Amino acid sequence: MDIGTDTSPVLAAGTATALTPPADLTVDQAALNIFDPAWHHDTFPNYQVLREAGPFAPGPLGLRLVTRYREVEAILQDSAWSHAEEGEIMHPDSDGSDLPTSFLWMEPPDHTRIRRLVGKAFSARRIEGLRARVTEVAGGLVDAAIAAGEADLVEAIAYPLPLTMIAELMGVPAADHAAVRSMSFGLARGLDPDILLSQAEIDLRRDSAAAFREYFTDLVARRRADPADDLVSALALAEAEGDRLTSDEMLATLVVLLVAGHETTVSLISSTFLMLMRNPDQYAALRADPDLAAPAVDELMRYCTPSHLTTRVATRDVEVLGERFTAGDGVIILLASANRDAELYADPERLDLARYAGGGAVPRHLAFGRGHHYCIGAPMVRLEMELLLRTLALRAPRLTPLVDPPPYRPNLVVRGIAELPVRIDS
Q1: Is beta strand 318-320 parallel, antiparallel or unpaired with respect to 323-325?
Q2: Helix (H/G/I), strand (E/B), else coil: 227
Q3: How far is CA 292 from CA 39, 142, 285, 363, 409, in A?
Q4: Which of the ends of the chain has fewer CB neighbours closer than 10 A, N or C?
Q5: What is the pLDDT at residue 34?
Q6: Which of 325, 310, 416 is nearest to 373 (CA)?
Q7: How far apart are CA 339 and CA 405, in angstroms?
Q8: Distance CA 113, CA 424 (A)
Q9: Among 22-26, 240-244, 383-387, which stretch is predicted with the lowest mean pLDDT?
Q10: Whole-angstrom distance, CA of residue 285 vs CA of residue 288
């Protein structure tokens, strides 16, 4: 199987067409469809075809697709599988300077060393201390959208909430938020396989990475001269000590934390709004019981998985639930597919905000990953989503989509809605 350069347009506003796979859809075609932006608004029928064919399916770039929950979980938790090769798989012609991914594409001991330095900023206690501030920001954004009467919820809420919070945690001044968002845009698209990118998009990734390095070099210098209680200051101190963090590692870590710290949450928030509008019974349940907000986050992570896929490469011969792999074999792990696996979840295609509320034995979703690559920002995502959902429940606005399906970004790895115009009635 091969992937050519994709020329399919993003669905335009006003196209309410729903793609339904034909009855004779083959596994090979379903595997190609999941990389096609024309399917981004609903690629789950393709995942269903792949899961029904088995836990492993032939995929692009000489890799196998991992489609089911048990196999995905097994690989993510097994140290025999490495994430360090993703750059070589997705971006074979890059020298790495335009992909500042830091510990995301590292394995122990370097992964452990850098993650430990960063982890203090994302401790449960530190994040819980942000509850009042997240409530303030979420409330202000929702109130402004209600007052406007109509709004693009991507611009009005989905972007500013997580960007504000990760920027404040890191110490990025408010005056710089628009600039760092612009830089993040080029890097987020640039994480997709190079074979799917235009030369202009590859150039934008390079330029964005260079701009980020220049920006954080300057900000670190300012924080060394005038330290603050933020992550930039903490990492600048660690880099100055020399034996724990190099200058290049620090800059790459700051970039990846800022980009990963808001881009995937933007996708989750946007999808959440759309799913609440498409499932009014669930929105009514949330409005009736605002305490449903906390457990609802896990169901939304399962149902609206913001990062659909990741990669792993076997570092030695290994067996995964009966399937044999040799050292050097690579796989594409379909997280969003695994989160809809009927072997693990009852009625997996149904959004049920109370799924995790009853204390029963519901399997954990895989949207945050597993093992030592488990999402370091998970506590922040949970807090932002919980308080946004609670704000919606208490303000109880009526939301009506003006376009359905909305247009989607072409991004594959960090995919999401481009615009979500909505009428809002208080």
Answers
A1: antiparallel
A2: coil
A3: 31, 19, 8, 18, 30
A4: C
A5: 93
A6: 310
A7: 22
A8: 47
A9: 240-244
A10: 5
Could you give the CA distance from residue 330 to residue 92 in angstroms, rounded to a whole number? 14
Task: List Cβ neighbours of 230 (8 Å cut-off, separation of 6 or more).
Answer: 168, 169, 170, 171, 223
pTM > 0.70: yes
Per-residue DSSP letter, 414: B
In the numeric block, which tokens belong to residue 388? Answer: 């946004």
- What structural domains and CATH numbers belong to the chain? 49-92+116-425 (1.10.630.10)
Decide: 422 and 401 in contact? Cβ < 8 Å.
yes
pLDDT digits (tens, 9 = 90+) for 358-377: 877 899 999 999 999 999 99
Is 391 exposed, middle or buried, given 0-12, 13-18 or 19+ CB atoms closer than 10 A?
buried
Contacts of 61 (CB under 8 A, 6+ apart): 3, 89, 193, 195, 330, 332
CB 357 within 8 A of CB 290: no
pLDDT digits (tens, 9 = 90+) for 93-129: 998 889 888 888 999 999 998 898 888 888 888 899 9
In three-state secondary structure terms, 168 is helix
